[in-house]
Amino acid sequence: MPWIYLLLAGVFEIGFALGLKYSEGFTRPLPSVITVVMAGISLWLLTQALRTIPVGTGYAVWTGIGAIGVAIAGMLLFGDSTSWPRLLCIALIVSGVIGLKLVS
């Protein structure tokens, strides 16, 4: 169950980060509220996961999920670069997250 909490925390972290873009510096009320709610849910789920998962592993996986998700969303939603070096770096993050799961 802790790994499910951590996965969900990462998904809400993606929502939080994307919300920062859509809130335009917290100048748009609805996206701003959604962003704050997403951050709160993400942090709560992270705290639940960290009851069992070591903090270093949990935090690294949480930020990795967020980084991967936001990078992919940026490519799909905002036309961010899809160059091979960028995709390679994302693949390295994915392998690191998988590696942490396997050794934990």
Automatic annotation (TrEMBL):
Gene3D superfamilies: 1.10.3730.20. It is a multi-pass membrane protein. InterPro entries: EmrE-like, Small_drug/metabolite_transptr, Small_multidrug_res. It is found in: Cell membrane. It comes from the Bacteria. The chain crosses the membrane at residues 29-47, 59-78, 84-103. The keyword Protein transport does not apply. Pfam families: Multi_Drug_Res. PANTHER family: GUANIDINIUM EXPORTER, SMR FAMILY PROTON-DEPENDENT DRUG EFFLUX TRANSPORTER SUGE. Belongs to the drug/metabolite transporter (DMT) superfamily. Small multidrug resistance (SMR) (TC 2.A.7.1) family. Gdx/SugE subfamily. This is Guanidinium exporter. It comes from Stenotrophomonas capsici.
